[in-house]
Amino acid sequence: MPLIALTGGIASGKSTIARRLAEHGAVIVDADALVREVQAPGTPVLRRIADEFGADVIADDGTLDRAALGAKVFGEPDRLAALNGIVHPAVRAESQRRFDEAFRNDPDTVVVYDVPLLVEARVDDPWDLIVVAHAPAPERLRRLVELRGMDHAAAQARIDAQVPDARRLAIADAVIDTAGTLANTLEQVDALWERIRAQ
C-alpha cells in the first residue's frame, strides 16, 4: 500500500503524470482540489480566513475571492504564514482521511498525493516515494506564456515565488523529466509504475 507524493513547480507536467498514474489504477488525491474544498462557502476555514484577513476577501456569492486574498499575502511572509496556519492543518486532515479511505477500500492500492507545496509544507510526512516532475524553469516559463496565456512578467513571478528546483530535486526518490515529448514523459511514468508495483 504505497503512499506516494508527486510534486513539481508550476507548469512542470505534474497533472500529466498524475493522469497517467490514474490510468494505471492509482488513486489520486489532489492537494489543490482539497484546498478549494476546505475553503468552500460555509466552512470553518473560510470563516477563519475572513476573520483574519477581513470580509473583503469573500466575494458577493460567498466564495473566497482568491485575488483579493492573494493581494494581501503576496510578498508578505507573516501574512502568508498566518494563512498557511489556517489552511494547511485542514488540508492535512482531509488528505489523511482520503488516504485512509483509499487503503480501507483496497489495501493494495497505490495512493498518489499530487501536492505542489510538498517542500514547503509536507516534506517530512512518511511518504514511501517522492516523485518530482521536472522541466527547466525557462521551459516552464514558455509553457505558462504560450499554453496558458500568461503575461511574461506574471509567469516569471509565479515561478520565482516557488522554491527553487534544486530544493525539490534534493528530496526526490524519482524524477520524471518532462522537458521532452509527451511520449517520453509517459514512458518514464510507465517505468515508474512498474517499479512501484514490483516493490
TrEMBL record:
Record keyword Cytoplasm present: yes
Enzyme Commission identifier(s): 2.7.1.24
Pfam families listed in its UniProt record: CoaE
Any single GO CC term annotated in Swiss-Prot or TrEMBL for this entry: cytoplasm
Reaction it catalyzes: 3'-dephospho-CoA + ATP = ADP + CoA + H(+)
InterPro entries for the chain: Depp_CoAkinase, P-loop_NTPase
Protein role: Catalyzes the phosphorylation of the 3'-hydroxyl group of dephosphocoenzyme A to form coenzyme A.
Protein family membership: Belongs to the CoaE family.
Protein name: Dephospho-CoA kinase
Native source species: Microbacterium natoriense
